[in-house]
Amino acid sequence: MSTPDDPIGFGESDLAHGETLLEVEELTKHFPADSGLLAGVNLEPGQFPPVSFGVDQVEAVDGVSLEIKKGETLGLVGESGCGKSTLGRTILRLLDPTDGTIRFKGEDLAELSGEELRRKRSEIQMIFQDPQSSLDPRMKVGQIIEEPMRAHDMFDDEGREARAKELLEKVGLDPRHYNRHPHAFSGGQRQRINLARALSVDPDFVVCDEPVSALDVSIQAQVMNTMEELQAEFGLTYLFIAHDLSVIRHISDRVAVMYLGHVVEVAEKEELFENPQHPYTKALLESIPVPDPRESGARGVLEGEVPSPQDPPSGCRFRTRCPRVIAPEEYELTDEEWGHTRAFMRAVKRRTFEPMTAADLRREFFDGDLPRGGAGEIVDEAIGYVATDRRTDDERGGDGDEDGVTDDDWERATELLLESFAERSICAREQPAYELEAQHGSDPHFAACHLHR
Ligand SMILES: Nc1ncnc2c1ncn2[C@@H]1O[C@H](COP(=O)(O)OP(=O)(O)OP(=O)(O)O)[C@@H](O)[C@H]1O
């Protein structure tokens, strides 16, 4: 730890660059789905008593394993709500993990509490997205930066002031602004104050949660450049959370991609951007807006809604939106047959077509030929539900609209197809985890996708 005579300290750390600083294994954080008065009470009218107790869980982070090396920046990317912040906060023990280990310099943070945990907190810091709300407007910049040092009993008043001023300079601000209030600064400058504050206790590891997302693009690059300079100077390690791939590309050494509480791909940056191996990562990369708006069509490859983290899909969580779901083996479908069946299943599930005759459906979705064998029989049965000419109104229960196809019919067809095909795919039955050889760089490439089985 640094002394007042050496106010900044050059992070004389016990670990060499590139050694494992943090290792997270099977880390899980579930939240109770509802914290209201009746949380956990389920109404079950068919039973006596008609209530049961049991709390639905939001599986925000589920079985995540990651390694972060001393001196590197691991970028963590994924759509909003996929669990990035929850993972960052659980690693810092701002949230208690539901399960798993968080090994920091060999010590399991998940096991620490009280004073031991408080002391560790000086080694791990966090900066947040919104510099406006994370800086107390009543405090002066100097006090803001000194607060963590005071909390950890570091230095005397003079030492803290000297260190705060030096840090102001290090983050690209004028030390003479020590007595100003945060409102006098721009968004980018406020994020620099936050950085100085986080670095004041000489941490080894900083979790940066969307630190530049609220800033203009030109300011983003400047703040990231400063963060990189500070990283090199102090031997810092960053977990850098962002939803914006261009930010991730700027700052990361390695990248982890998250989807619905799972890490689905991890690779060195160049490998991830040039040789992505998970269909979700590919879809994310393809949906980066193209600079020329006339070149449309490069967007929007991710279809469907993200499922609820309260009831996530079995196996691969991305399978319900995945364009590459694997055919169930039992039917021995050709690629073409599976392609047709999947397209039909998806169209029925989303009700994207007007009901038509069975022959028209066969032509429209199967080029006239249903798959051979058992798969064909199932498809034919499903067609029976949504075709206009296969069942009488009485058979349907008589509440169909003009074309005779009822909501129940759509649901039966959907259920039959999903149960017979989607749920029998390896993608639904087993959680994928594969280590691949990388084409770029020397690190292994992790991809949670059964296409690599
Ligand atoms: N305290 C909480 N109680 C219940 N559910 C929560 C809580 N915090 C987060 N969640 C849920 O956990 C899931 C993951 O949220 P999280 O904020 O970690 O995602 P994120 O990827 O960081 O998204 P964003 O970028 O929008 O912040 C979401 O479904 C969210 O609604």
From TrEMBL:
Disordered, as annotated region: 295-319
GO biological process, one term: transmembrane transport
PROSITE patterns: ABC_TRANSPORTER_1, ABC_TRANSPORTER_2
Keyword Plastid carried by entry: no
Domain of life: Archaea
Keywords: ATP-binding, Nucleotide-binding, Transport
Molecular functions per Gene Ontology: ATP binding; ATP hydrolysis activity
Domain ABC transporter: 46-285
Transmembrane regions listed in the UniProt entry: none
UniProt record similarity statement: Belongs to the ABC transporter superfamily.
Name of this chain's protein: Oligopeptide/dipeptide ABC transporter ATPase
Organism: Natronolimnohabitans innermongolicus JCM 12255
